[in-house]
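ok trying this again, last paste got cut off
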Amino acid sequence: MAKALFGHLGGPDPIVAAELSRLRRRVADLEAEVERLHAASGVLTALEHDDLVIVTDSDMAELSPALT
């Protein structure tokens, strides 16, 4: 059990510590992306229920950064 806990904390091995740090950054990036997609989904859902939809260039850039 001590080995598992020691490994979970990163241990003294710099390669393991660097990989753990990289994975934590990646998880944080993915969580931020999920939040951005939830926000975009909420905007699209709200727009779907409006009779008149006006979408500006900045709205499109925010909703679809890959298309800009």
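PB: full thing came through this time. The chain is about 70% helix and 0% strand.
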